[in-house]
Design brief:
This protein is mainly alpha-helical. It has helices spanning 12-15, 38-66, 72-117, 119-139. The protein has one domain (12-139). The chain contains four helices and no strands.
């Protein structure tokens, strides 16, 4: 099952509001499913995180441009909203990193299992790869 990742909780209507992010109650955060597996799932989650970080940067840029026009209460509200978004992204990034580490461990286990089952073929493959790399590097 592949989860869907919403883009950003900031909409164009937020940017057209009297002050940036007046819709602070709508803190819908990305839903990063812990069951994402496989390379494609991690790639999708990584792409979604990049998009969310870009949106957060855009939100910060907009806030900086409008900060002089906002009251202290509005600034505190925007700070709280942006920090909430940042915390959500940080937790999602940790989840993606954990999943990537788990996938790497599964790959290492599969490789070591193959080497244990077929040691001579493994040595032959390693020798062949080493020779090809040696010839490629020797040319340069």
């Amino acid at each position: 099952m592949n989860p869907e990742y919403p883009s950003s909780s900031t909409t164009s209507s937020d940017l057209n509001s009297p002050y940036f992010g007046s819709n602070a109650d709508d803190l819908s955060q990305p839903d990063y499913d812990e069951s994402v597996s496989g390379k494609s799932g991690i790639k999708r989650a990584g792409a979604s995180l990049r998009t969310e970080l870009g949106n957060l940067k855009s939100d910060l840029d907009t806030l900086l441009g409008r900060a002089t026009n906002l009251s202290d209460a509005e600034l505190r509200q925007e700070y709280s909203r942006l920090m909430s978004k940042f915390s959500s992204l940080r937790a999602a990034a940790k989840g993606v990193a954990t999943q990537a580490g788990q996938q790497l461990n599964r790959g290492m286990d599969a490789t070591s299992g193959y080497v244990r089952e077929k040691p001579l073929q493994s040595v032959a493959v390693a020798t062949g790869v080493g020779m090809v790399l040696g010839m490629l590097l020797h040319r340069r």
